[in-house]
Amino acid sequence: MPCCACPDYLHYSCYTHKINGKQHTPVLSVALMNEIYLSDTNILANTLKNSLELDDDAVVNVTYYNLDEYQNNMSYLAHLSAGSVDVILCSEDFFEESASQGMFADLSTLLSEKELSDYSSQLKEASVIDTDTDGTVLSESDPAPMGIDVGEYVICLTEKGNNPENAKKAVSYFTQNTKWLN
């Protein structure tokens, strides 16, 4: 039975959970995009919870989105715009397409100088490009680090994510544990 009054398509990855009769909001939400797939996301969610040393009743969401499916696409966009997605694991192609649209956070504003230095050889830079309805470029930002390429996938943080501290901890986990996904 659904745990909230969300439209049906959001029940694929509901973002408020009832545990022992109390409502809990996730302390970390990870989105796996298109070809970055894991058949049992609960195993990864529990592993993240343990690895990040979160409380037993903490909620970690790991959700797979196949954006070729309309309902998944709408669900993803709704969660992204609401700040309900903290970390995105995606292919290089998805990164290239989405970074220019401003979908990812500038990592230089979220990570420390030491963290940026540690990931320097893996950082993927991109520019946000603003266009009009005809596709004419109106403005283009300076390139900024927006992803960390670990070979298997690119790790990105979202601009509006509700849990930036846990998202940064998850970055460390995902850079060291890359074999979870296909």
Portion in beta strands: 15-25%
- Structure class: alpha+beta
Order of helices and strands: EEEHEHEHHEEEEEH
Q: Tell me the number of strands.
A: 10
Radius of gyration: 16 Å
Mean pLDDT: 85
Describe the structure.
Helix content is 27%, strand content 24%. It has 5 helices and 10 strands. Helix 1 links the parallel strand 3 (28-33) and strand 4 (60-65).
Features:
27% helix, 182 residues, disordered N terminus, two-stranded antiparallel sheet, 10 strands, alpha+beta
How would you summarize what this structure contains?
Strand 1 and strand 2 form a beta hairpin.
Q: Secondary-structure map with pairings?
A:
Layout lengths: L16 E3 L2 E3 L3 E6 L7 H11 L8 E6 L4 H12 L5 E4 L1 H8 L13 H6 L4 E4 L2 E3 L5 E4 L3 E6 L4 E4 L6 H13 L6
Parallel strand pairs: 3-4, 3-5
Antiparallel strand pairs: 1-2, 5-10, 6-9, 7-8, 9-10
